[in-house]
Amino acid sequence: MPVDGARGQSKSEQHAAGLADQRSGSKREVPMEVLVLGLCRTGTASIRTALEELGYEDTYHMKSASVENPLDCELWMDAVAAKWDGRGSFRKEDWDGLLGKCMAVTDLPCAAFAPELIATYPSAKVIYSKRNVDSWYRSVLNTIEKEQQSSRDWLLSYINKDIWRQYTMVHMLWTRMFDGDFSKNGKKYFEQHREEIYRIMASRQQDLLDKDIPDYDFPNKNTPEDFHGARWRQRRKQVVDSIVTVLPVIAGLSAIGAGVFLAMR
Known about the structure:
This protein has a 4-stranded parallel β-sheet, sandwiched between helices. By secondary structure, the chain is mainly α. The protein has helices at residues 11-17, 44-53, 62-68, 72-85, 92-99, 114-120, 133-142, 144-149, 152-156, 161-177, 182-201, 224-264; strands spanning 34-36, 59-60, 104-105, 125-127.
């Protein structure tokens, strides 16, 4: 993937570096052109890379929220609460606030809001990334669902705010999508989600992407091995950052305690 800058960051990663604050309240800065609405583990990370290589800069992906700008997770929690719990609302201005710098989207959380995004951005081209349901189910069981069943992130969320944001958002979304039981309801949701998109798009005509076909192979990103390795590296960095942050506080409190002890002798 083409990268810019000495640090070798992708364009999305460079852009995210400037998003230190939550996007709520911002406005759409670029047109939304492509909605890739297949579920996670259907090649979405590879599609993100491909779209950015075609010029759709800042293609939104789960990584956008979980790694590049964790404050986005709070907005996604609002969207989940509005859709599934009937708490509050999430209107076009909210979507523009969250996705206003993005020309395309792929992966969760976006794919879980397919009807809402199609209605909000009617001029965007819609792509459904397909995968055999049994193959998809096995892949999710070995990656995301395995993480959901682990207590690691739940424990780490107590020491790092960004881990808490991601864990809480994904847990909220996951339990509502699959009625609290992926192993039982995963395939059913996959098929319902596919049929809903097909139904919405049945009467809609759209052209193909007006882009030249690159003369290199389609990207291959986020294999199960990549998924677990990247997640471990991310968590390790977040924990180290938390420890570095609290060490001066602990040292200061220790010094104060030692001073009080000596003064009382």
